[in-house]
Every structure is written in structure tokens, then in C-alpha cells.
């Protein structure tokens, strides 16, 4: 009987060990801003929610329509705002970070074609621990509701 219980315990343990690990970060409401005529770059926005007990670190992204994707933020220098590239973006444990116009965002460098409203693109978010999140991301209008005022960025 002891052997049977031990074997049963091992089988149950293996079954649980083989279950896929759920990502501790959710990517919500991601979207790409339609291209500004004449601008070679684009921008992506959304929310990253960390449900885990440890900080997660976004280190990059990829999308087929751009040669590169960089993490950027806006910083104030006196009366002026400017963009600044970042090596990584920390999503604190049990918290969320919003990528939005005028704040953190993904900068799509050297677009191979303009981002057009209604199109959907595959975006991959890459984290320092090797996790990736694959998303289908729609392109939305340059000026719509709360997304006004992002200017020439």
C-alpha cells in the first residue's frame, strides 16, 4: 500500500510539474498609432500588468513592419519634452505600467510601410527572463479621444 501511495504521489507530482506555467504578466489593450505622413517611425501603446511576486523586465520587442523596436519614454527638460530610449522597462511585482502617448511607449524604428488604420500586426514583447508575449495589435487613428496631443512623435 505504501508503494502504491508513493507511486501515486510521484505521478501527481509529475502531472503538476508538466503543467504550463502561466505568464505572470498580461499585455492589455495594445495598439499602434497610425503613421504620420512622412515619418519613418511608429509608436505602440498598451498596459503591462504583473500578477507575479517578482519584478518583470521588458527588454525589447519585435514586429515585422519595423527594422527595430525600442523602448522609449518622454522626459521634461525645462519647458521642453523630449524622447529618450531606455534599455529596459521594469514592471514591478503586483503592479502595472501603462505605455501611452506622452509617456512610456514602444518606438517602431524604420517602418517598412506605413501603419494603416484597421490593419493588425503581430507584436512580440521580450522579457529579460526569456519570457515572450505574442500579440495581435490593431492600428488605430492618429487622433481619437484620449490619444490627442501626441504631436509629431
From TrEMBL:
InterPro entries associated with the record: LpqE-like, Lxx211020-like, PCuAC_sf
Annotated signal sequence range: 1-23
Pfam families, A to Z: PCuAC
Top-level taxon of the source organism: Bacteria
SUPFAM superfamilies in UniProt: DR1885-like metal-binding protein
Keywords: Signal
Regions annotated as coiled coil: none
Keyword Lipid metabolism: no
UniProt KW Signal keyword: yes
UniProt-recorded name of the protein: Copper chaperone PCu(A)C
Amino acid at each position: 500500500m505504501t508503494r502504491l501511495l508513493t507511486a501515486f504521489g510521484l505521478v501527481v507530482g509529475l502531472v503538476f510539474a508538466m503543467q504550463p506555467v502561466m505568464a505572470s504578466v498580461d499585455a492589455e489593450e495594445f495598439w499602434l498609432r497610425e503613421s504620420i505622413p512622412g515619418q519613418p517611425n511608429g509608436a505602440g501603446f498598451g498596459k503591462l500588468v504583473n500578477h507575479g511576486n517578482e519584478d518583470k523586465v521588458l527588454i525589447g520587442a519585435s514586429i515585422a513592419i519595423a527594422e527595430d523596436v525600442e523602448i522609449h519614454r518622454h522626459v521634461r527638460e525645462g519647458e521642453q519634452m523630449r524622447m529618450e530610449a531606455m534599455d529596459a522597462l521594469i514592471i514591478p511585482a503586483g503592479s502595472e505600467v501603462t505605455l501611452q502617448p506622452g509617456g512610456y511607449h514602444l518606438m517602431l524604428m524604420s517602418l517598412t510601410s506605413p501603419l494603416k488604420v484597421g490593419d493588425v500586426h503581430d507584436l512580440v514583447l521580450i522579457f529579460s527572463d526569456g519570457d515572450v508575449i505574442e500579440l495581435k495589435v490593431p492600428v488605430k487613428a492618429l487622433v481619437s479621444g484620449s490619444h490627442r496631443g501626441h504631436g509629431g512623435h
